[in-house]
Predict the 3D structure of the following.
Amino acid sequence: MKKDVSRTTAVLTAEDIATIVGLRGVEHILDELIDRLRDALLTFDPDRVHSPARAGFQYEEPEVGLLEWMPAMELGRVAAVKTVGYHPRNPTRKGLPSVMATTSVYDTATGQLLALLDATLLTALRTGAASAVATDILAVDGPLSVGVIGCGAQAVTQLHAISRVRPVERVTVLDTDPVVAASYNRRVAFLDRPTTVVNPEGDTRLLADVDVLCTCTSVDVGKGPVLRDGEHRPWLHVNAIGADFPGKQELPLPMLERAVLCPDLPSQCRVEGESQWVQPDRIGPDLATLVKHRSSYEPYRSVLTVFDSTGWALEDLVVAELFIELASREGIGSTVTLQRTATDPFDPYALITP
Amino acid sequence: MKKDVSRTTAVLTAEDIATIVGLRGVEHILDELIDRLRDALLTFDPDRVHSPARAGFQYEEPEVGLLEWMPAMELGRVAAVKTVGYHPRNPTRKGLPSVMATTSVYDTATGQLLALLDATLLTALRTGAASAVATDILAVDGPLSVGVIGCGAQAVTQLHAISRVRPVERVTVLDTDPVVAASYNRRVAFLDRPTTVVNPEGDTRLLADVDVLCTCTSVDVGKGPVLRDGEHRPWLHVNAIGADFPGKQELPLPMLERAVLCPDLPSQCRVEGESQWVQPDRIGPDLATLVKHRSSYEPYRSVLTVFDSTGWALEDLVVAELFIELASREGIGSTVTLQRTATDPFDPYALITP
């Protein structure tokens, strides 16, 4: 991109993002994103890609919520900061998604804001794509029986993404809210897979009957796990995406203790993910290592594995850049001259006319 | 504000900000901001206003730079994250200000983005306002002889802000870049104060001759101090705003050691400011304490004081809210429906039409 003082900021609204997805087809977008993420992990160099631990505000007023910032930088090129709100009462009280996010992309040559994107759908897509990358390496060959615990927005992209890397034969789902569970079928109807809803007491039955399990709940701190331990297939692979804060836990401890845990970002998972509950020696290869040495980890397909997905800022950078590129190719989105700068960089008042 | 799913994001561009300032008059805006900041400090309650330590990326490619995020939240009401780039080569290589910033304001009830503002002028204004608040409490009564070391963009708002709390009789300035020093007079011509430029070897002469000194340099890590120690008036007050990173230093150590240091945010100043160079017992009251107990600190007017201004996210929240309010009152700025959300918060694909 040309570096000049009048460079504008690209703005991609929720509607622009949806238009891009609609134009290209949601399957195609997800496949593209899975490929991009896999490529980014394959070439991931921690000396070049920096993603410091996220931090945030946690509060109980005016609503129970969490507002976090997740920065990532590819050295010499670009930086992104996703700000993500997690307000579990949004859906029922306000008709809003519990996870709402925006991503800002900066030019590290000058500090200018290159782009601002609504990242609510992007977050759901990239979280799905990460599970797809992990599932593709760690799950038994298909066709699969898939279980879903927690049937909110993330559950849609989890199932969808898994279906892009393995044939899915049938789906069993569970949610503590019967209304949310009941509407899941309609929301994933486009996948055309037989979906059975079980009630919360059916957790062990669900567990016993699946090859891949996704836990994507809004579990509160200290309120986990979200299912009881029980019999399961020896090769069960779990994508655990709901634990993303100190004290959160989705899986029962005995299950974690007999699994190989594969964190997305180990330093973050030890603090916020399922990894916080086990001894360090239970923690296996991280997602980038799995992708880089895929064939070495083939044997993991026959044992219990857990992808500890806390959400990695690198994923947000990858999905933001994909959509910026697609928007530019399709001519979608708008621009704003947010940072028009005066001719004299030493005069802060140069733009002001009395 | 009404909490509904179609709420838009207010966008205030650099031009909008300049228009607001032009409409109200730059003096009036600065007075308003100084008042607001003083009020925020007077009522500052660390249990209600949270501003965790800022963090950032520091890099040497593609340019020497720093990109930092500065979050602040007033519990129960609102949160803001300023992202600020510091690229010291911007002015000479790109014709851009070295400090470029944007501020995002979030609703902590839902996580929605309420407003996005260019914060380049806002940063210069709030840094000036903070120095004005400190100077008003700590400097000798006017009329003052004011010194300025480092004549970039911040030097304009520093002098301007000081002139709002004390009569300024004359100004002496110094910059290592003679071109920047030479243009300062023109940039502060609106203040109509006799301004003398001295060359860098004149640092001790400048020091000896002023009541208030502002150091607002782009000093590099490990390259300070920016002036030599020397004779000065016993009541000298210094606003030191250039040290804002570990290893940065503007003032000579003996001077710091005989001064009372007043940090803006003590935890941050001990890591990034002039406070990092002295023993903890040299660090005096912080800015909020000074404002709250103003009369107790009257005696400080007769001794050497240093306002250690690293830049506090609370100041960014105050200036952002002031401009959002003024924009709304004056009908300036635009809105974007960034986060339009579908009717079903559990369906991430609801907005997509194939």
